[in-house]
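Peptide deformylase
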Amino acid sequence: MAVQKIITESDNRLRAPNSKVILIDEEVKKEILDLKDTLASAKNPEGAGLAAPQIGINKKICVVRNYTEDVADPSKVVFQEFVFINPKITSASKETNLDWEACLSVPNKYGRVSRHNKIKVTALDEEGIQFTLKASGYFAQVIQHELDHLMGVLFIDKVVGKIISGKEMEETYHGAYA
Ligand code: ZN
């Protein structure tokens, strides 16, 4: 297990087809640990999820964090990490949200993307056991972003309106995010 380099926009591996995982062997387990380590090491900016192609592995694997309030101390945010292998959205709400997104593979770009409010996802976990989960809001947004990566799609392909830089984002939205 090790922190891997996160590849960026111009690297073709972000656009290449990703193969289904047939067997969760030692190699796949190592790749999952690499994904977790690499996501954990991304601090500025922090990442809420990471897909295997972002570290140059063209397989249908991603890791997503679900942030919640700490039960013991509501001023703190904690997260639970989910591994999705061969994930598939099995149902999605008609209602959508248009919200800001960014990507560790697309540095310094921000844009609004429309995502389903609620989704249901089926995938295999690290042990190869199938699970289904329901997600809504930000968690659902991040899952949809990561699943796009597994289809070679980047958020910049889907932006509604302008793509702006981190500096523009700060200048324009500073008040709203304070
Ligand atoms: Zn991304």
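thats it. The mean pLDDT is 94. The pocket of zinc ion is lined by residues 103-105, 145, 149 (CB under 6 Å). bye
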